[in-house]
Design brief:
Elements (H helix, E strand, L loop, with lengths): L4 H12 L4 H8 L5 H13 L1 H17 L7 H12 L15 H6 L6 E7 L2 E6 L2 H11 L15 H17 L3 H18 L1
Antiparallel strand pairs: 1-2
Length: 192
């Protein structure tokens, strides 16, 4: 029995979102709560026909990409190379930019741009700061700022605004000010 249109859309969505079965159900047009969509995703993954079609579609996607889809470990390795990039790996024995030297030192993946110049070529490396930032985020060393939504009575919003204004004028240390603000907001949330 052939797959339904919805099952086919689910397979495409499942591959596109890296294997999130619940989200694939949502995108394929299934309706229901998160729990029922999760159950439907599980059912789809348990269906031998869908599993076979999924394996076939995954193989076709891999073949179409010619093996150029990086695994998570490969992405981390590439970012690590870029984060520690050293221009010396792209210079010959005379200190001139050289693709041959980059190849010899296995540094070609660190190169972002090569331009011809009057004297030869110029080489620009990938931005190590960006690679370092991405790695730091991956390892949880950087925390994105979280917006806290606090529901308070209208009269309290003026008071909170005044307190935050006074804090910004009297507490120069950003970390201390953030700690005080977090404590104030937590206390307000606990009392509402």
């Amino acid at each position: 029995m052939p797959l339904t249109v919805k099952q086919t859309r689910w397979i495409d969505a499942y591959i596109a979102n890296n294997g999130n079965a619940t989200d694939a159900c949502r995108k394929a047009g299934y309706s229901g709560t998160d729990n029922s969509l999760a159950q439907q995703g599980h059912d789809n993954l348990s269906n031998p026909q869908i599993r076979a079609a999924l394996a076939d579609a995954t193989a076709k996607a891999a073949k179409a990409s010619k093996g150029k889809i990086l695994s998570a470990d490969e992405v981390l390795a590439l970012l690590s190379e870029q984060a520690t990039a050293d221009i010396d790996d792209c210079l010959d024995q005379n200190g001139e930019p050289s693709i041959a030297a980059a190849r010899k030192n296995k540094a070609t993946r660190q190169i972002r741009e090569v331009k011809p110049t009057r004297d030869g070529i110029s080489i620009k490396l990938a931005d190590p700061t960006k690679a370092q930032e991405l790695l730091a985020r991956y390892h949880g060393l950087l925390q994105d700022q979280t917006v806290v939504d606090v529901h308070v009575a209208p009269f309290a919003s003026d008071l909170i605004g005044t307190v935050l204004s006074v804090l910004s004028e009297t507490v120069p240390d950003d970390d201390l000010r953030a700690t005080i603000t977090d404590a104030l907001l937590a206390r307000l949330q606990g009392s509402s």
